[in-house]
Predict the 3D structure of the following.
Amino acid sequence: MTIALSRLAAALGVLALLGASAAFAKPASAPLPQLHEQHGATQLIVDGKPFLVLGGELNNSSASSVAFMQPIWPALSAMTINTVIVPAYWELLEPSEGKFDFSGVDVLIAKARKQNQHVVLLWFGSWKNSMSSYTPAWVKKDQQRFPRAARSNGSSLELLSALGEESLSVDRRAFVALMQHVRASDSANHTVIMVQPENEVGMVEEGRDHSALANAAFAAPVPAQLTDYLATHKDSLQPALKEAWQSHGFKQGASWEETFGASLATDELFNAWTQALYTGKVAAAGKAVYPLPMYANAALIRPGFQPGQYVSGGPLPHLFDVWHAAAPAIDILSPDLYFPNGGEWAQKYKRPGNPLFVPEMGRVSGAEMGATMLWAFGQLDAIGMSPYAPEYLIDADRKAVTAAFGVVRQLAPFILEAQGTGKMFGVRPPVAFDGSQTLTPQKFTLGTYTFDVRFKNPAPISIGQREDVEMPGAHGGLIIQTGPDEFLVGGTGMNIYFGTTTDANAGIESIWEGLFVRGKWVPGRCMNGDENNQGRQLKVPTGEFTIHKLRLYHYH
């Protein structure tokens, strides 16, 4: 990271402290956190105001120890994270059946509240990363009462069957107890703003459960709850699902294979239905006592993988219809972005009525995560983005994420105002699964101006170079129109050229770098001369995340 980035990160740390006292100010009798459609975009409303989640999802085991978390809390605060995403572990919450211990959850909520951070609770219940390793010992050891899913050869998996009625009953009971406790301890503060029932639901090794319970359900008629939903939404179904159903005569009241055909895809449909139904019932029971927004997250698919090779049956794009039919209490279906082509996946989750919320992202550099976050807020109207395991980020990645968070924090009022209005766009080069990027210039229009965004520096003619050279580092950001001729640009690694939608030319009236402090613009340098290529372009530098205020004008 450059010296400029370090200066910005330090400044943003000051901003975080300046804004801390007001962060949790709420009007009297503020409503519960909720999702609300505002000028064409679904937004998360916290204490009566739109809110962007700048999150950090803790590593699986970090939150299980109060002592282990002690040095982590200040580090999270230094990163200007406004929402900590933390597990509530069933095995620790109910170590003996019917006897609940909420002390760990209470400490987490209290610590976050003290730091003016919100909390998203993850219910590590029957399933976490497709397995059942976080269930209490009394559940794990009683396989008669709590049956396991089975492979096609009959052997058991470390995975509860979604057909186990007792498993659903005790999971639902524990989740309700958790939600009742959160309501009693936090309803006046709204520290907890969302909840995730279960985690990365699905099945690996097989496309579906082959236990006796599951085989009987697979041979029975597809539930009317699903086929009725499919019939009602026939015109908007996911293509593969519609084709499978249509090719078998749009049957209703027939077995799964008679309805959709004998295939791994049908196995996965069945698994999605059973696990989504289970998850939806857990969510609905919790919402009945404390109706916070709830989401389900998905582990994504590597190229060429088939059901059983990936976490099959989770809330993946080709299974959205099944999840909507089975689990209406789930408000958001979310992707966990661990592939370089995370942007491609994120676009699949931005659907009407399904705002983009990314609870986990990683396995790329902090600068790449930061560029993706800015693009998602600007282009996809995201309600939240969250790197995974921020406590384990290396220093360079932590600084980059902190700087990107700082830009979003400062621009949040403008982002929230612009979402859904067409007055904002995000910029990000398409990235393939192998990490290669397409650096083709991107063109956008805001008002009467056009923006030609490039990710290469012009070839220096003076030394005879002919080809433009890629700007080093990550590329991405967002541009917001704040007036007829005024724009805010946040991001990294871009060169932006300007035109108009008329026969006039676009000129640069001024470019200022700067910061927003308590919502007030504090200018830095006026970027003219060599800094804007003699009035030709806005240079958004690489190796740092910056904000520029831009004014354009028309001339002939």
Summary: Residues 168 and 237 are 29 Å apart (CA to CA). The longest helix spans residues 264-289. The two ends are 41 Å apart (CA to CA). The chain has two domains: 33-213+265-422, 442-555.
